[in-house]
Design brief:
Elements lengths: L7 E3 L8 H7 L9 H18 L4 E6 L2 H12 L5 E6 L2 H12 L3 E6 L8 H10 L5 E7 L1 E2 L4 E2 L2 H11 L3 E5 L18 E5 L10 E6 L1 H7 L11 H8 L10 H17 L1 H20 L4 E2 L10 E5 L5 H12 L1 E5 L8 E5 L6 H17 L5 H16 L2
Parallel strand pairs: 1-13, 3-4, 3-5, 5-8, 8-9
Antiparallel strand pairs: 2-10, 6-7, 9-10, 11-12, 12-14, 13-14
Helix pairs in contact: 1-9, 2-9, 5-6, 10-13, 12-13
């Protein structure tokens, strides 16, 4: 009987969970109306504001990142409102569907999968809106289906110039991986999820809400109950929750945020950038091509084209041989690409290990030679050593 191996998650979520966080997660539950839990909510809320770089309310919802994004939309908009949706991957596509489901009039700005959204398209449409009919701009910052990061800083500056439109941003795989200064960029709604850069299991989502967004919420007429953010805001004033929260996930969140504060924002961003550069440059030495535009690579994930090789078979081989789980392509990209996640609790050792596994598999398939395999590791090491 073969020894049971440890599955290594190198996908964009769920991401690996630190031992200290798992230990916190395994504590006995406590009452969610107790003073002990209120103290926990107070601590995590302060640290969430630190991570978001904001003085805005940051609310915690028991639900996935999609719940937070839906909450941002339905709490600030009304049926028939005109919105811009950016779509250059699976998740941008999702927000178009959600907006239409709630009866919003969608102006779509799209880009071919693998390319970033063009900020100048947002500028043009917003400037042409002389009557200020556009009520929100909805987009994904880090599009993990393709490995692209969009230029949120520039796009958000154009939204601010419009004065009326809200920014509703999916930062599910960018928050905790790269700089998202919510107050500096005056972002109105920022949604994220626990199983990504937060380094805890799935089940919580977070939403930062600006004063401008709260003012819009007073006019919103879309239906909401569980995701009514006013209820969460009212409860947060007494460090509580309107409904039964996932208590043990909050234990885990408290520990993970303490770890993140200890590492520091700049070091967190530096680590993710080093891993992105190590991964993206190493695979090029292995005769593999990046799927995304190299100038816009996400710090969360690297998408890799396999050419004539079936990407799903390649992923299966690596999982069976090395117990490393890589992500596949979605929709039309299935079988065409595989994706290596380097988000959250990922170390230099993990990056070296996954590059070695990819190299070894390519060697077995006769796709590369030993010199290329060695070169890939040397390249990765150079970037991992950089400051």
């Amino acid at each position: 009987m073969a020894i049971q191996q440890k599955l290594s998650l190198m996908i964009p979520g769920p991401t690996p969970v630190p031992e200290k966080v798992l230990q916190a997660f395994s504590k006995h539950p406590i009452g969610h109306r107790s003073k002990e839990f209120q103290d926990l909510v107070e601590s995590t809320t302060k640290n969430l504001q630190w991570l978001h770089q904001t003085q805005n309310d940051v609310l915690t919802i028991t639900g996935s990142g999609t719940a937070a994004m839906e909450a941002g939309i339905i709490n600030t908009l009304s049926k028939g409102d005109k919105v811009i949706c950016g779509e250059n991957g699976k998740f941008g596509e999702r927000w178009v569907k959600v907006a239409k489901e709630f009866g919003l009039e969608v102006i779509k700005i799209d880009s071919e999968w693998g390319n970033p959204l063009d900020p100048e398209e947002f500028k043009r449409i917003l400037e042409e809106d002389k009557l200020k009919e556009i009520k929100a701009v909805i987009l994904t910052h880090s599009e993990t289906s393709t490995g692209v990061i969009n230029d949120l800083e520039t796009i958000s500056s154009y939204i601010r110039e419009h004065k009326t439109a809200l920014s509703i941003i999916d930062c599910v795989t960018s928050l905790g991986a790269c700089n998202v200064p919510v107050d500096k960029w005056q972002l109105d709604i920022v949604a994220s999820g626990s199983q990504k850069g937060y380094m805890i299991p799935p089940g919580l989502s977070f939403i930062s809400v600006s004063q401008k967004a709260w003012e819009a919420a007073e006019k919103s007429n879309l239906p909401k109950f569980y995701l009514n953010l006013k209820s969460y805001r009212k409860s947060l004033s007494s460090n509580s929750n309107p409904y039964t929260p996932a208590v043990n996930l909050v234990f885990a969140l408290d520990e993970s945020l303490k770890m993140m504060r200890e590492e520091g924002l700049d070091n967190i961003f530096l680590r993710h950038n080093k891993h992105k550069l190590a991964m993206s440059n190493a695979v090029k030495a292995l005769d593999l091509n990046l799927f995304a535009d190299e100038k816009y690579l996400s710090p969360a994930i690297t998408a890799i084209k396999t050419g004539e090789m079936d990407a799903e078979e390649f992923r299966k081989t690596i999982k069976n041989k090395f117990d490393i789980l890589l992500a596949g392509g979605q929709d039309q990209l299935k079988g065409e690409i595989f994706r290596v996640g380097h988000l959250g609790y990922v170390s230099d050792r993990d990056i070296i290990t996954v590059i070695s596994a990819i190299s070894n598999t390519l060697l077995d398939l006769g796709q590369i030679n030993t010199q290329q395999a060695g070169e890939a590791l040397l390249i990765a090491s150079k970037y991992l050593k950089s400051d």
